Amino acid sequence: MRLHDAAALATVLAMATAIAGPASASTPAHTHTHTGTPEGVAAPAPASAPSTACPANAGWDTPSPPRHVHGDIWYVGTCGITALLVTSPQGHVLLDGGTARGAALVEANIRAAGFRVEDVKYIAGSHEHFDHAGGIAALQAASGATVVAREPAAVVLERGHADRGDPQLQELEAMAPVAAVRRITDGEVLALGPLRLTAHATPGHSPGGSSWTWRSCDGVACLDIAYVDSLSAISDDHWRFSDPANAAYLAAFRRTLDTVAALPCDILITPHPGASELWSRLGPAATRPLSGDGACRANADGARARLDKRLADEAAAPRPD
Ligand SMILES: [Zn+2]
């Protein structure tokens, strides 16, 4: 079943009101100006047509309705943090869980798209930071799903916090611990019914970062989907990419950029929608096609330039204590 369930959608909107507050959730976008009504009195917007466009700079917990992506794939995240539901008659795979607060929005979006949360069999994801994995424990509890991750992300999910292997350690919030994470390795295929999702080790933004690729058909239109992890080179004040002690980490990061550039990639989706300008390609504000040639290569090239800039900045700055 895929049709919008009015009751479930109402739940999403109610939840949006509860989380975001009534001002942002219930205020429709006024696309018309004056239409003969007195100054200061807007014509009533149709109750069934709230604005569903996500702003490019949306907050992590800004609600979004679920959006059909392609074939068996639904976007069930918020406006600011991606969660993807890859569906099949034998159960679903959820990629990323949003923040601790966003998990309820993800769960409501799964139901609003017409699916049962209890049918989520696996939860996998991008990387072990609280904006993408903070909601996984709650979603695991709601679904009974097996959580799948690569080391060293798996141990971070189970422990609920990172260690000094993570460049951003001192900026990271703790997460609710996830139970019994199943380890998956680079190149391994996560299989469920007809679904085959390949894990790619893409460390750099975090030590345990992973990207996922799979093929998705919409009728005869079969496309390669790439869910590519964050590639930004950022750290807290006490960690440098150019530190000789981190040479192996930096080399792995550079291999990641080569890996991403070469992924099969008709449709690129990233954990932060803005990193791949998703809202210009999906949803009511889209102005260009969702799919396009060379999206992963362009994404990797941009990240490589930013990494080189970061290294130049480090070289020009005094060493931290
Ligand atoms: Zn992160």
The radius of gyration computed from the alpha-carbon positions, rounded to a whole number of angstroms, is 20 Å
Query: Which distinct ligands sit in these coordinates?
Result: zinc ion
Task: Count the beta strands.
Answer: 12
Using the coordinates above, name the CATH class. Alpha Beta
Mean pLDDT: 87
Strand content: 15-25%
Largest sheet data: 7 strands, mixed
- CATH names the topology as Metallo-beta-lactamase, Chain A
- Tell me, briefly, the overall form: globular
How many independent structural domains?
1
In CATH, the architecture is 4-Layer Sandwich
Number of helices: 8
- Strand order, main sheet: write it out: 1-2-3-4-5-6-7
Distance between the termini: 58 Å
Helicity level, as a percent range?
Answer: 25-40%
CATH superfamily: Ribonuclease Z/Hydroxyacylglutathione hydrolase-like
Q: Please, what is the oligomeric state?
A: single chain
Category from helices, strands and their pairing: alpha/beta
Order of helices and strands: HHEEEEHEHHEHEEEEEHEH
Question: What are the SSEs and their pairings?
Answer:
Layout: H1 6-20, H2 22-26, E1 67-70, E2 73-75, E3 84-86, E4 92-95, H3 103-112, E5 120-124, H4 130-133, H5 136-143, E6 146-149, H6 153-159, E7 182-183, E8 189-192, E9 195-201, E10 210-218, E11 221-227, H7 247-261, E12 267-269, H8 295-316
Zinc ion binds at residues 127, 129, 205-206, 230.
Brief account:
The protein is of the alpha/beta class. It has helices spanning 6-20, 22-26, 103-112, 130-133, 136-143, 153-159, 247-261, 295-316; strands at residues 67-70, 73-75, 84-86, 92-95, 120-124, 146-149, 182-183, 189-192, 195-201, 210-218, 221-227, 267-269.
